[in-house]
């Protein structure tokens, strides 16, 4: 899509954009100027159906007046308050409200500002927990190949996407489970794939290698999102839970993407019936309007750390903006929307239609897999010889020109529309994407 901004083209030089081919983008930029409901509007005035909830985060749709009103009121009441040795009522109110929708027993909340910060916080909580219990030698962390846990050094280290890791030094004492990705056996699965539960048993091998007494935590995404929507095989998460319990290892679920209704329940752990010890969240926490994250913690983990002399700081960790009052106001307004419109159940209600529509694309050229769970989905394309990712990028660009925002992860087209999507809009999304795929060589 070639953009013509006339005299209104902004100077693009100063902003070094994240996870972007900057020179390619700035030569032919794609700029979004406004958003409302299910749609973006480009600077040229084109309406674009949001097939990705922005970046996995705008679960309740764009331009919600209730959130804007709550944010404005909070700005004019208490725009900032420190959370180190001080507090403010709205932070405690938001934490309490969040515990009402959390998995049973996860009734302590530590606020952060992003998914990356939530992950690094959870990893530190895991280490602090074992030290508090007299097992300070438990410092090793287990992630998973193809996992994405943000870009902090902790999340980068337990993550398993090679392009994110290769430039940087990662933390020592980290190992990885194999990915559950299995195109040979699980291609075109609908919902959770049938094959791959045995891949959880690799954890036993890593435990035997390193010694159970050295391992603090295992962290996985219930559904690997950034790798291209990889639902867990049937029984896989339960097997990880069993192994962790057997060896005294904490289990962390990264629900930054799957949290807040994406898979048909408030959290994927509830949808899949497996409760972790810690759970990282962000994105849908505030509908993407203000950066915020939260780590949900089981009471037993919290209580092991929060002990000792009452005047002593128990956990030397936090951020200037932890529990920011304006972010809390946005989050409370978002929770009200989720409850009033029953959006946590929306993913489950529309999932059968979403599944059928998405899988109708199976005969399009170059499609080698389609997978889905809840209101998430992916269409995987065969790569061009010598040019991996080129076909996926072409779909991204042409889909936008046709009025649809998708996310390209290499040659995988990932989809996660807002939970407010209508049946007609599901049809429109698939129709646009199908037309684009049909024209890709």
TrEMBL record:
Cofactor needs: pyridoxal 5'-phosphate
Keywords on record: Aminotransferase, Pyridoxal phosphate, Transferase
Pfam family, one: Aminotran_3
GO molecular function, one term: pyridoxal phosphate binding
Statement: the UniProt record of this protein carries the keyword S-adenosyl-L-methionine: no
Signal peptide region: none
CDD domains cross-referenced by the UniProt entry: OAT_like
Family under the similarity heading: Belongs to the class-III pyridoxal-phosphate-dependent aminotransferase family.
Protein name as catalogued: Aspartate aminotransferase family protein
